Amino acid sequence: MFAACAAIALAGCAELERQGQLFTTPPPSTRPAASTPRAENRSTVQHKELVEQFGGEYDAPAAERYLNAILAKLAEASGTPGQAAYRVTILNTPVVNAFALPSGNLYATRGLLALAGDASEAAAVMAHEIAHVTLRHSALRAEREREAAVISQAATVIQNRQKGEEVRSSQRLSVASFSRQQELDADAAGVKVIARAGFDPYGASRFLTALGRSSDLRAALYGKKKSLDFDIMSTHPSTPERVAKAIAAAREIGAPGIGVRDRAGYLEAINGVAFGDDPMEGYVRGRKFIHPRLRFTFTAPEDFLLENSSEAVFGVREADNEALRLDSVRNPSYDSLEAYVASGWVDGLLASSVRRMEINGLPAVTAVARAGEWNFRLAVIQAGDLVYRMIFAARQLTDDAERRFMESIKSFRRLSSDEAYEAHALKLAIVAAGPGDTIDTIAARMIVPNRPTEYFLLLNGLSAGDALTPGEHYKIVTE
């Protein structure tokens, strides 16, 4: 059912942001891989699954060599005999994330490479993830969750339902608290290791600060309410708490200014790395969405901000009272588009509103639906063996909203072969500031969907009002 279309669309980017909550550890086997065929096979399967889940491997030889050199230094400083020799795999996704497996595989997304500012920040992320493995956090967390499940099941059987729910809530709180402590423990362990490896121990707090700023910018763009309150049911501590504790751990080692940062070397290593969406999986340029592999494009209504994901394209209007979603289904088993629209995948369909039309040479059906306080203008468009579903949601479907939604629906069209061939990714470029350059002059060279100045500040760890240093190198996003 699609009655929750508005809620899904307005919160659509929340899932992407959740994926970017560093540093997360995926659910691999909780036991270190032994040198047996079975363990090696398990490791290979885990590797393939993770690579597939995060967009495949990204080929960036210079960045890979640089990160592996950092890992070699971390291994020497770890003080853990027999610890696996880690090697990095860069994942082809703009999501900011990293994780490690007991097998010695460490994964970093290209979104993380863009956000990190220097070698010490990258080292802090990788040391944190290795600490999760060294401290056996996956195994301990899994054991606590099993205990919680057993206790809550017993409480449900033996006690009344209300009491059982109280016990389940208590157990969920215990598991969440344990998970937060794991994150803080991994932070502290990581800070110590990067310091012993010769890196700036304050790199961890700088990266966590950048992560918080990234979340704030996403919240500002997509209208989600921001809260600094500590979420007791969260599996991760709040970013402000982690920053404070990371700074405290670094201060135990020494005052700011110690250790290697190697900003220049790091920027050189990531120069040219792709930024944002993989163009073959669809990408956003302003209000326009282009998908070269599936060969289609459409333009969102005025004032909409678009976000691509593996599931759908989501959009919200900055006023936060309109939303959109576009996805596709393959070969729905219905005799006609009208029958598919009426098949029950959307609630509140007004049967009298169903209209067949042609959109840029493609057969289509449009309709209106109402559910609760939301009104929906929707269209299904047949293109080959795919049916594209465009759903627009508004609290009030005014004449102006109807006009804008229909203009967007009618903008859907196939791409020509030349248009699909010309698609290319955005990329990071490292530029030197000239004597007269300011934040505004260099940010004007940024090619990002929204708010170039804010993104320039975020990527370079700067604040509004900072002065650029002539000759210093900075990250920008370009074509």
UniProtKB/TrEMBL annotation:
Enzyme class: hydrolase
Transmembrane segments: none
Domain of life: Bacteria
Residue ranges, annotated region (Disordered): 21-44
Peptidase M48 domain: residues covered: 62-246
Gene Ontology molecular function terms on file: metallopeptidase activity
Keywords, sorted A to Z: Hydrolase, Metal-binding, Metalloprotease, Protease, Zinc
Essential cofactor(s): Zn(2+)
Stored InterPro entries: LysM (IPR018392), Mito/Outer_Membr_Metalloprot (IPR051156), Peptidase_M48 (IPR001915)
Protein name: M48 family metalloprotease
Keyword Protein biosynthesis: no
UniProt EC number: 3.4.24.-
Coiled-coil spans in chain: none
